[in-house]
Specification:
Strand content of chain B: 15-25%
Number of strands of chain A: 28
Number of domains of chain B: 1
Strand content of chain A: 25-35%
Shape of chain A: globular
Largest sheet of chain A: 10 strands, antiparallel
Strand order of the largest sheet of chain B: 3-2-5-6
Number of helices of chain B: 5
Number of helices of chain A: 12
Oligomer: heterodimer
Helix content of chain A: 25-40%
Radius of gyration of chain B: 24 Å
Structural class of chain A: alpha+beta
Largest sheet of chain B: 4 strands, antiparallel
Helix content of chain B: 40-55%
Chain lengths: ~575, ~180
């Protein structure tokens, strides 16, 4: 009897501390992981805020493509990130500075390169003076110099560098034999461009007729009296800026205007370059954009030149700065990269050799520089924690190499038994940096022009139905709501693709609102849509070129025009 | 007589102490860990959808596998709210962020699962919302043991519950 009681007590003495310690340990592990999950979510929210800040700033900043202005937008976005992070992590009382040391780098991947925001040794003097040496220089946070997505190739006597972008635009510079050359433009398959008529500005691309087109936007102006003025205006784009045509203006010298600060700014007669360009495209009361033609016209000549020059270059010829061979994540072996006339190498198609190689180069460049930037951060951080670049998954890389994105890192915060270490990638597809293949929307309208609706190019309803006619196509930015500020707290909103006195524009319920099912874009570009056997159980062709002609014409024209109209430093300076 | 009664009570108490108590303590820890695993998996699953804009059959099945690896059976409730900005478009002075100007269309677990099995994926767009709630449907060991002492009745007697949700931040890609 006594034995049993003793046993019980001994048992309790043994088991109680074990159980207590165990539950305590598990609880703290749980806390650690809960905290980690919370940080993950917050890092994600903050990065999303940063992307949003970048989008809002660039879309509303009509000079955002100019580098100084872009740097300002990015710095604003960086501040948003830190503010959001400290608010999310409830550290607002200790200020945004407290979390800064835990962020070894922020990366902004843009159209043709990327910025890394990190701590660095600033040797540049604040006022004019000598460049400081390392010991005097101060460590500070800031954007490091812009890095292009570039790859170096060496073949025979040629030694050159190719700057890639998120689409098919490239810049080539380097030594070809004894000659030093620089070329810039859009790479397409030149054999698909036929029947060029420069006088009429028409050509056919892959069986599609490209011709001058009329672009219209609805604009709202700040009211000078009670009613806000508004109207539909035809426009073209010159040097990345929209030039509108005002048919009602009676003054011959005030026919064209820029939309600045929500009002008409007529282009002065001294601005002859713009006016000449605009007048050449005016006929009667119609204002024609020739951007789509110009895009293919210039791209065709550029592509032929590139094929002549480096048509045989393959990935095996790629070397790094020291001249050593590079191993790429996307291996295209000995297939010619720049010869776009061969099979499976149309740069507009996702799986082309050019595209695979482009992604490989971008990935390689970001990886090398980011590893260095984060490793360097160790010497500035003042922590014993060792900062290092985490391993990105394949799908992460897929996002980075095809999109404008923000990559954020948060490392070294002690959470219970370990240190927090994670990263976050958020992409964006509404900005003035790049026109992606899926950022073109196609507008349909019924007979009298009312009931305008916009669709994705692969929208099943758009391709299947023949009820409404396709009228226009624009980049997705034209469908974003614009704000006119009248006074503090009093705003008016409008959509550029609305039409005065006619209609509103609404998103299609099959593809925009309910983004469920669309046809593959590559199929639309190629003009052949096949059954997806896994889904429908059928095989074979659903639509051929003839049936898709309308959609393809609208889509490809718009894609070419919008890409041509983006302000791109390299290409524009080369073609002028 | 008195002695043997005390003996019986003592043996009984000792049995509870030595077997049931540690078992309960341990099984509750197990549930804590399951809870943690399920919560982590749910957060990961939802955040993955939010950052990619794609809800795939593969991802969903993998998620189900991860949570059932805890040895329990679960009921997963998903809800997708698709943003429709069209009503707000028709009034120029509408404030888009105000409640009532925009409409959300909601689809629930069974509809989502049907769509997933039919197409293999659901594309979402920026502004849509997704939320997932999961709770266990079986009785875990700790629940059984607890019911031995005191009973909690009703339908909502789950031990493991995880929730996560949020706004999708990117448009689902075409390929």
């Amino acid at each position: 009897m006594i034995k049993a009681q003793h046993l019980a007590i001994i048992f309790i003495i043994i088991i109680l501390p074990i159980s207590l310690v165990l539950s305590n340990y598990i609880q703290s592990q749980i806390d650690t992981i809960t905290l980690q999950t919370q940080y993950n979510s917050r890092l994600y929210e903050s990065t999303y805020d940063a992307v949003q800040a970048f989008q809002i700033n660039t879309v509303n900043n009509r000079y955002s493509s100019i580098s100084d202005s872009k740097i300002r937008d990015i710095e604003a976005s960086v501040n948003t990130f830190y503010n959001s992070l400290s608010n999310n992590i409830n550290a607002s009382e200790i200020g945004t500075e407290a979390l800064r040391p835990f962020v070894p780098a922020l990366v902004y991947t843009l159209y043709d390169g990327y910025y890394i925001y990190s701590k660095y040794n600033n040797v540049y003097p604040e006022n004019n003076g000598d460049v400081k040496d390392d010991s005097e220089a101060e460590d500070e946070y800031g954007l490091k110099p812009y890095i292009y997505y570039s790859g170096r190739y060496r073949k025979g006597n040629n030694d050159f560098v190719v700057n890639y972008t998120l689409d098919n635009a490239i810049t080539i510079y380097g030594r070809f034999g004894t000659e030093y050359r620089t070329l810039s433009g859009y790479l397409i398959n030149p054999e698909q461009v036929e029947n060029i008529d420069y006088a009429k500005r028409t050509l056919t691309y892959n069986g599609i007729e490209i011709k001058p087109e009329i672009l219209t936007e609805y604009l709202l102006f700040t009211p000078r009296d009670e009613d806000a003025e508004s109207g539909n205006y035809q426009y073209i784009v010159y040097d990345g800026k929209k030039v509108y045509y005002d048919p009602e203006s009676t003054n011959e010298d005030e026919k064209y205007f820029w939309y600045d600060n929500y009002s008409k700014t007529y282009i002065s007669i001294y601005n002859t370059e713009v006016l000449e360009y605009a007048r050449a495209r005016t006929s009667g009361d119609r204002f024609y954009s020739t951007s789509a033609f110009d895009y293919f016209y210039e791209a065709e000549r550029f592509s032929r030149e590139v094929i002549d020059l480096i048509g045989t270059v393959t990935q095996d010829d790629a070397v790094d700065a020291e001249g050593n061979k590079i191993e790429f994540a996307y291996n295209t072996g000995n297939e010619p990269i720049f010869n776009t006339t061969v099979n499976n190498n149309d740069p507009l198609i996702s799986g082309s050799t050019f595209n695979e190689n482009r992604m490989g180069v971008i990935r390689n460049s970001i990886e090398t520089n980011l590893v260095a930037a984060i490793a360097n951060y160790n010497s500035y951080s003042g922590f014993t924690y060792e900062f290092a670049l985490p391993v990105f998954t394949e799908s992460d890389w897929g996002k980075i190499v095809n999109n404008i994105s923000v990559i954020s890192f948060l490392q070294g915060i002690p959470i219970g038994y370990k240190y927090y270490n994670n990263y976050c990638i958020v992409t964006n597809d509404k900005n003035e940096e790049v026109v992606k293949k899926d950022s073109i929307y196609i507008v349909t309208a019924n007979e009298d022009g009312t009931n305008r609706e916009y669709h994705l190019p692969g929208c099943t309803k758009l391709v299947d139905s023949e009820q409404d006619r396709i009228v226009e196509a624009y980049s997705n930015l034209s469908f974003v709501r614009q704000t006119v500020r009248i006074s503090e707290g009093n705003y008016l909103y409008f959509y550029p693709q609305m039409r005065k006195d006619l209609s509103y524009i609404t998103g299609c319920y099959e593809c925009i609102v309910n983004a469920s099912d669309t046809y593959n874009l590559d199929d639309i570009i190629n003009g052949r849509i096949y059954h997806n056997e896994e889904v429908t159980g059928q095989s074979g062709l659903i639509y051929n070129e003839d049936q898709l002609e309308q959609v393809r014409t609208a889509y490809i024209t718009a894609l070419a025009r919008e890409r041509y109209d983006l302000y791109q430093t390299n290409i524009d300076s080369m073609s002028n | 007589m008195g002695d043997s009664l005390v003996t019986i009570i003592a043996i009984f108490l000792a049995a509870i102490l030595m077997f049931v108590f540690p078992l309960m303590a341990l099984s509750e820890r197990t549930d804590d860990i399951s809870q943690l695993a399920v919560q982590t998996a749910t957060t990961e699953f939802v955040d993955n959808v939010r950052t990619t804009g794609n809800l795939t059959l593969d991802g969903y099945e993998q998620y189900l596998q991860t949570i059932s690896a805890t040895g329990n059976s679960f009921e997963v409730e998903m809800q997708i709210q698709q943003l429709d900005e069209n009503p707000g478009v028709k009034v120029t002075q509408a404030e888009m962020t105000k409640i009532g100007e925009n409409v959300y269309y909601t689809s629930y677990t069974s509809q989502i699962e049907e769509e997933l099995s039919k197409r293999g994926r659901i594309k979402l767009k920026e502004g849509d919302m997704i939320s997932v709630t999961v709770n266990n449907t079986n009785q875990t060991i700790s629940q059984i043991l607890r019911n031995f002492f005191y009973q909690i009745s009703g339908n909502d007697t789950y031990q493991i519950l995880a929730k996560h949700g949020g706004i999708v931040s990117v448009n689902g890609s075409g390929d």
